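Morning run. Coffee first, then this:
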Amino acid sequence: MIGFLRVAFFALIGLSVLYWLLSLYSRSTERERLEKKWDAAPPEDAPDREAYIEAGMAKYEKSLRHKLIWLVYIVPMAVVAVIIYIVNAQ
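And here it is:
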């Protein structure tokens, strides 16, 4: 049991690092997309570039894409739980 807890602890650390890196990458690509969109054709209703980008990033924080990054935790844990169940059911 102690061995399982040790592996689970290090797995959660690894998943946390992966989540953090994926989150940073996703935010970076979204910011770059907003910057390119502004540079191509600045909208007339946006006051300036930084305000436009910050508004877009605030919108991104509420988006489904941002929330789907949590699957980094959920999918591996669900797979391990299913494997444990299948192995113990037989």
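The mean pLDDT is 92. Good start to the day.
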